[in-house]
Specification:
It holds the Pfam family EF-hand_3. With 217 residues, this protein is mainly α. Helices cover 59% and strands 5% of the residues. The protein has a single domain, classed as Recoverin, domain 1.
Length: 217
């Protein structure tokens, strides 16, 4: 464990993470992909204690750590600092459920496995935000709004590139769970085109295609 943090390597799994992945593999017998993926994410969420993390608390923590530049690359110590703040807060409210060192190690392990497949020892701020917020506790509508805001321009609109960036980061979660095929694979371009075709059918007068946040149908 200490060697991992010192060298910032990302090819090593915490023993508890290995156990978790083995338990997730047991869910492969679930027939329907949507249920199977949901069960895996729920088990992962509870193992990382992110089901205890309020969306607003996560947002405040990002602000406290001045994580406003979503393109910024975070080193392993940077990620650990942010995760420690999050889990210290959770421990104060849920002493019997949260083991801070274990949770930090496990969550760091998971974030690197999902977003640092190139083994660089760094992940982007946007990646960490999307990973943590996707598994946090909160109303789905509020999650959609906050995630959209992370890629949107002034005026709460985004273009195809920005929406593609959001979907690319989000799809890494089911990809790492072995479930990406059920959601159209890693190529998010068809999904982006589909979204903007829907937008164009309502706003044909706009010269440049831009999407604004609306309640998902």
């Amino acid at each position: 464990q200490k060697k991992q943090l010192k060298t910032q390597t990302t090819c090593w799994d915490h023993p508890k993470m290995t156990e978790l992945y083995q338990s997730l593999a047991d869910l492969n017998n679930v027939r329907f992909s949507a249920y199977r993926t949901a069960m895996k994410i729920r088990r992962l969420q509870k193992a990382l204690c992110l089901d205890l993390l309020d969306l607003s608390v996560a947002q405040n923590t990002f602000e406290q750590h001045k994580l406003t530049n979503n393109n910024q690359l975070l080193s392993v110590p940077d990620v650990i600092n942010c995760l420690t703040s999050i889990y210290d807060g959770l421990e104060q409210e849920h002493k019997d459920l949260v083991n801070v060192p274990l949770c930090v190690d496990m969550c760091l392990n998971w974030l690197l496995n999902v977003y640092d497949t190139g083994r660089s020892g760094k992940i982007r701020v946007l990646s960490m935000k999307i990973g943590l917020l996707s598994l946090s506790k909160g109303h789905l509508e509020e999650k959609y709004k906050y995630l959209f805001s992370q890629v949107a321009s002034a005026g709460d609109t985004c273009d195809q590139r920005q929406l593609g960036l959001l979907l690319h980061e989000a799809i890494q979660i089911p990809r790492q769970l072995g479930e990406v095929a059920a959601f159209g694979g890693s190529n998010i371009e068809p999904s982006v085109r589909s979204c903007f075709q829907h937008v164009c059918s309502h706003t044909n007068t706009h010269k440049h295609q831009r999407a604004s946040y609306t309640h998902p149908e």
